[in-house]
Specification:
Chain A is α/β, with parallel strands linked by helices. Helices cover 56% and strands 12% of the residues of chain A. Chain A contains 16 helices and 10 strands. The longest helix of chain A has 53 residues, at 314-366. Chain A starts with a strand and ends with a helix. Classes of the chains: A alpha/beta, B mainly alpha.
Chain lengths: 426, 270
């Protein structure tokens, strides 16, 4: 069994690419069912945030990745070959390290941000609810959550209020020195948008408007944040009134278009309008950047804001890496032990199958054997196989404690062609 | 004494140049601490500059604003003082970035011109309204220069934000816009009063001076007009944004042409 990770993130792909491979939560159950059901993968989980779309898989071999690429092409309607340069794929310990880095926040756009831990947890819950996370991914994700918690508890990686929201507030400060007189419109009632709006509210904005497709959700969030709900149909009219817009819907198409903004800017008489689009796929047409006095920032634009933050936290990143190394060692022991058990079972099964095949071959040549004769031959074959396998099995059990154990176990699997045998049997 | 004044003005000029380079270095290459050094250099330049002007007035026996060098030196001094105060109290973080090079160029220009420190009995004593006119229009130009600095800050920040860049050294757009409006408003008030005083003086001025018309007047009016349009659009029309700032820049350039192109001395009038 192998752990595989295939994905794109803010390091490898711009937002135009990331938004094409985003998995809205509503689409995830069917995607997970297809991964496990149609593509023969043992386990699957999807981590889709504004900065990354990653698939975590448990598969019998590397062949799973080719299947997953086909799945992405079919599921998202994209030409995967054209996106090939943006993909990364990781196996086993590399995949585990990657998830640990993600959960600890050191792979995030805003290093140390806290939202990612909740997103990893939700990815696990989604996979569990859909029956696609069992022994291996469950353990991997649980350990990654532990790494995330330890990183924040034992280091200063998460000190201060770090998030996309704080970066957005800092950017807003470049347009409005003092946010106290500003009116903010939050489009979408999701968690990321709400958190960003909360930071702006804490910074003292005068008025907060909340608009989402479901008015009841807008009302609920507005009352929670101390704002007012406005209907989604009034959105275009509000563009002329507000100073800051945060858009974070799950819509797959643009919610705010340049034509709406041009009309609004005429009414605003050139008063600057600051838009933060933290949705992936994006909510605001990037052509809005060309409109005079409109300032649009999307997830990639926030990179500039957080570059300094990354430099400041280099020392903390090293401390988190130590935690990751420690947790990885423990996970690999568990993983190797798991691999050891399954390998021993597979080897014994292979030996038993060979015994049966040999017995059948000799029986056809010697003619029917009496029960005693048959038991004798079976005993000889079993004893021979057991003696042959004894030393390798002892060695295999020791591999569980070896840091490189999974590599050695893989070598044994290849030596005995166990994966092929299992596939033939299945 | 003349030599001492010029030498000290050259020293002040060197400090202004150093300040300008340090501010640019901080802005362009993000050299930390260079802006603080630039501010210190600007203050040192201002101190030397002030001593030079005070000693000139005290010891030369010349009247106030008797020639171009003194006019420009006073204007530059007022600009640096207002810039430092603006940085401190109006939270326009970048003013030094623009006032330092302006101060350098403003002082370099009259120093390169033929110097006119000869003894002269100024007509300013005879015509007090002319003196008030000079002081007020100078203050007007200082306001316009600071409005120009704020407008340039706005436009640079605007451009940076459009490109998705963060430049925390420059002021926020709303602060830069408000400062542009305030400085332009203040400058416009002084300039208008200055022009009024100039008009009063004109009625009593020597006839031959007025006979051929005065380029200064014809160049002052477009400056006044452009800033008037800006203030109307911003204050009454409630217009905002990038394009308005270009009006401020145009007004400042017109004022600069008036100040530098036309000879400002009063020695030959009597």
């Amino acid at each position: 069994m192998h752990i595989l990770t295939l994905g794109i993130n803010h390091h490898t792909a711009p937002v135009e690419i990331r938004e094409r491979l985003a998995f809205p939560e509503s689409d995830q159950p069917s995607a997970l069912a297809r991964l496990v059901g149609d593509y023969g993968l043992h386990e699957a989980a999807i981590l889709s945030t504004c900065n990354r779309s990653e698939l975590y898989l448990a598969a019998g071999g590397d062949s799973g990745l080719a299947q997953v690429r086909r799945f992405l092409a079919e599921c998202q309607g994209v030409d995967v070959a054209a996106l090939e340069s943006h993909f990364y794929q990781l196996n086993d310990s590399d995949a585990a390290v990657h998830l640990f880095r993600v959960a600890s926040g050191i792979d995030s756009l805003v290093v140390g941000e806290s939202e990612i831990l909740g997103q990893v947890r939700r990815a696990l819950e989604m996979a569990q609810q859909n029956g696609s996370a069992r022994l291996l991914l469950n353990e991997l994700f649980q350990r990654s959550l532990r790494v995330g918690k330890r990183a924040r508890a034992e280091t200063e990686i998460g000190r201060g209020r770090l998030s996309i929201g704080t970066a957005a507030v800092e950017l807003a400060g470049q347009v409005f020195e003092n946010l106290t007189g500003c009116c903010v419109l939050l489009v979408g009632a999701g968690e990321m948008g709400a958190l960003t709006a909360q930071y702006l509210v804490d910074s003292g904005v005068e008025r907060l408007l909340v608009s989402s497709r479901t008015f009841a959700r807008s009302q609920s969030l507005a009352s929670q944040l101390g704002g007012e709900a406005v209907s989604f149909e009034e959105l275009a009219a509000q563009l002329a009134v507000v100073d800051i817009i945060i858009s974070a819907t799950a819509a797959t198409d643009y919610v705010i278009r340049p034509a709406d903004l041009r009309r609004a800017m005429e009414q605003r008489r050139g008063r600057p309008l600051f838009l933060i689009d933290i949705a992936v796929p994006r909510d605001i047409d990037p052509a809005a950047r060309d409109i005079d006095n409109v300032f649009l920032f999307d997830m990639d634009s926030l990179e500039q804001v957080v570059a300094a933050n990354r430099q400041e936290r280099e020392g903390e990143i090293r401390c988190v890496q130590t935690i990751i190394d420690h947790e990885l060692k423990e996970f690999l022991h568990w993983f190797n032990a798991l691999g050891t058990g399954s390998l021993i079972r597979a080897l014994r099964q292979r030996a038993a199958n060979l015994q049966e095949q040999e017995l059948a071959r000799w029986t056809s040549q010697l003619g029917p054997l009496s029960t005693d004769e048959r038991q004798l031959v079976e005993g000889i074959l079993r004893g021979y196989a057991n003696k042959l396998l004894h030393d390798p099995l002892v060695q295999i059990r020791e591999f569980a404690n070896d840091d490189e154990g999974y590599v050695r176990l893989d070598t044994v699997r290849r030596l005995f062609r166990l994966d092929e045998a299992e596939e033939e049997e299945s | 004494m003349t030599t001492f004044c010029i030498v000290s003005l050259v020293i002040a000029l060197a400090f202004y140049l150093a300040a300008a380079l340090l501010f640019q270095g901080h802005f362009l290459w993000h050299k930390s601490g260079w802006d603080a050094l630039g501010r210190k250099s600007l203050k040192l330049g201002l101190a030397v500059h002030a001593i030079s002007i005070v000693l000139h007035f005290a010891l030369s026996g010349q009247a106030l604003f008797a020639n171009m060098l003194v006019i420009m030196a006073s204007l530059v001094m007022a600009l640096v003082v207002a810039g430092l105060l603006g940085e401190r109290y109006a939270r326009i973080r970048h003013l030094g970035l623009l006032t330092a090079p302006l101060a350098f160029l403003g002082l370099l220009y009259p120093l390169l011109m033929p110097l006119r420190f000869e003894e002269a009995e100024s007509i300013l004593v005879e015509y007090p309204f002319l003196g008030i006119h000079v002081v007020l229009t100078l203050l007007g130009h200082v306001g316009f220069a600071l409005a120009f600095c704020s407008a340039v800050g706005y436009l640079v920040q605007h451009q940076a934000l459009k490109k998705g860049q963060l430049n925390s050294y420059l002021p926020a757009l709303d602060t830069a816009a408000a400062a542009t409006f305030r400085f332009a408003g203040g400058g416009f008030s002084f300039f208008t009063l200055g022009l009024g005083m100039g008009a009063i003086w004109l009625f009593g001025a020597p006839g031959e001076y007025l006979a051929g018309g005065d380029t200064k007047i014809w160049l002052a009016l477009p400056t006044w007009f452009v800033f008037g349009i800006y203030l109307y659009l911003r204050g009454i029309g409630r217009r905002h944004g990038r394009r308005l700032k270009w009006l401020v820049i145009a007004g400042f350039v017109l004022g600069l042409i008036n100040l530098l192109w036309v000879r400002h001395d009063f020695v030959n009038f009597v």
